[in-house]
Design a protein that fits this description.
10 helices; transmembrane; Tetraspanin_EC2_sf; two-stranded antiparallel sheet; Tetraspanin/Peripherin; about 300 residues; about 5% strand; Cd81 Antigen, Extracellular Domain, Chain: A; 2 domains; Tetraspanin; transmembrane helix
Length: about 300
Amino acid sequence: MQELLPSIHQSIICMVAWVEKKSEISIDIGKLTICHWKRGSSERKIGEIVNVSMMVEGCAKGVKYGLFVANAVILVGGIVVFSVGIWTLADRSFMERLLGSDLYVSSASILIATGIIVTIISFLGFLGAVKEIKCMLLTFFIILFMIFITMLVGGILGYVFRSEVDDRMHTEMLLTIKLYQNDTQVTDAWDAVQTHFQCCGLSLDKNPGYEVWSKQNAHFGGVYKIPATCCKTKDDGLRDRCQKDPNEMNAYLEGCYEKMKDFVERHAKIVGGIGVGIACLLLVGMALSCALFCLIK
């Protein structure tokens, strides 16, 4: 077999030379191959073929390792998105009743679902890259593309309707003032908001926020002027005095709307930043998976 290798190699050179019309004569007699070529052009052609093959193989390995890294980053990103969604849903959902919209909680649910899907899909990308299975890589690309489009559309809608959310929040907060102590969900929401943001009521016509309670709610038109959660102290005796005669020393007098609005805007920026970051990672993952798909024979 070793004796045949030189002859086989010579035959390949002659064939390439003949195809390129750079060989004058090619004769094969048994194990003996005779080939006349012009100025080593066939040998140069064989070298070029080998070099191109090595370049393609090296490029495929680079793309493969790049896809590994991209999937690792996407996996971490999915975990981060999932964690932010859980934090939002568990720690800040008390504001939903006063927002006049379910977008806040819905965004948290979308983050959780997206985080789970992205985390699972990253494993699919790993497996497709390791095994070099074109079907898995194609599936990986399609799912990433669908997630990317969903996040893009969600971002555009959030940007378009952001001002509408502000207006609805102000209207809903004003309407729920009258329902305080008549609706358990509303009462709990206002108590949580006033405690968390250290505010009181809603500012109307440039008046202090705490005044809205005595003007808009029948429970605070007599002896008590504000809810207990507007008071700075937790002592029952001092809190009773605070509710009867609120002032800067014992109560929060500033309205809650601006603080809630600022919080929602900051949260929207965080969610938007995470969304843009994940979208960029998805683009990289799609590009690398598509490249590896094309390079696999």
